[in-house]
Amino acid sequence: MSDQPDATVHIPVMPREVIELLDLSPGLVVVDGTVGGGGHSRLILEQIGSEGMLVGLDRDNSMLARARQQVSGDNCQLVQSSYADLPDVLEHLQIEAADRVLVDLGLSSDQLADRSRGFGFAAGGPLDLRFDPSQGQPAGELLLSAGADRLEQIFRDYGEEPNAARIARAIVDRRRKEPVRTAEALADLIADAVGRGGRSGTHPATRVFQALRIAVNEELDHLQRFLEATLPACLRPGGRAVVITFHSLEDRIVKNAFRDRDRWELVNRKPMTATAAETRRNPRSRSAKVRAATLR
C-alpha cells in the first residue's frame, strides 16, 4: 500500500480575487500562512517565479503532505507551524521579512472529509477536531470534562449558538450514561435537543462544531496574536496582508485590527465577497470575506 497521501479535493476560495489583492510580481517573498491543499500557493508561485520565495505554513501536517503534491521546488518552503509563530519560522529560514502574507481561515474540504478527526459530522469519526493532533485537548475530552456553564460559554462565544444552554445541558445529561466520543453522536444529540428543522437549511450542529473547533485549536487567540504582533513584525513596510474569514467572529477581529490607521492602509474598504458564479463553482465561498491592507 502506498504511503502517498490522497490528492487534495479542496477548491481554493476566490482565487482570482485573492491573487489580484496580493498584487504579486516576480521576486517577492510571500507567506501563505494556511497553505491547506496548496491551491492559492500554486497560483502564487506562478506569479513570483523562480526568483521569488514562497513560505507555506499549516498546523495540520496532513494538509502539508497534500500541499507538497501541488507546490515544490527550491523557491518553496513548507513548514508545520501556526501563522501566529511566523517570526520563528522566518528566523529559522533566514528570511528577514515577507513582502506579502495570505491567511485563509477556512476549513478545507480535505479536513471535513477526514474520518480520523471528526471535523465534519457528515463524514463522522472520532471527535477530535484538532489541527495538530499532537497538541491540545481533543474535543471529545473537552465534552467529557467541562461543566455545563463552560460548555454553554464555548457554544455561545465561539459559535454564537442561541440554544447554547440547552445543548450544554443535554451533553452533560448524556455523559452520565455514556461519553460523546464521535462526530455522529454529537450531531444526533444536538438534533434531538433542539430539533432538526430550521429555515437556513444548515444542520443544527453546525455552530457547535465551529465553537468546539475554535476552542480546542485556540483559533481566535492565534488570530489576535497574529494581527497584533506577528504580522506587523514580519511584513516589510509597504507590504500587503490578505485575510480570508468565514464567520463574524474572525471578520470582526480582522476588521478591528486593520482600523489602526497609524499602522495599516486599507486596500479595500469593504470586504470582498464571492460572486454568484464563484458560489456556484465553490459553495464554500458563500460566507467568505476578504480584507486586504498595506503596512505603513
What is the element layout, followed by pairings?
Elements: H1 15-22, E1 29-32, H2 39-48, E2 53-58, H3 61-67, E3 76-80, H4 86-92, E4 98-104, H5 109-112, H6 139-145, H7 148-159, H8 164-175, H9 183-194, H10 206-217, H11 219-234, E5 235-245, H12 248-258, E6 264-266, E7 272-273, H13 276-281, E8 289-295
Helix pairs in contact: 7-8, 7-10, 8-9, 11-12
InterPro entries: RsmH, SAM-dep_MeTrfase_MraW_recog, SAM-dependent_MTases_sf
Pfam families: Methyltransf_5 (PF01795)
GO molecular function: rRNA (cytosine-N4-)-methyltransferase activity
What does this structure look like?
- By secondary structure, the protein is an alpha/beta fold.
- It has two domains: 15-110 and 219-295, Rossmann fold, CATH 3.40.50; 114-217, DNA polymerase, domain 1, CATH 1.10.150.
- Helices cover 42% and strands 15% of the residues.
- It is built from 13 helices and eight strands.
- Strands 1, 2, 3, 4, 5, 6, 7 and 8 form an eight-stranded mixed sheet that branches.
- The chain is globular.
- The N and C termini lie far apart (52 Å).
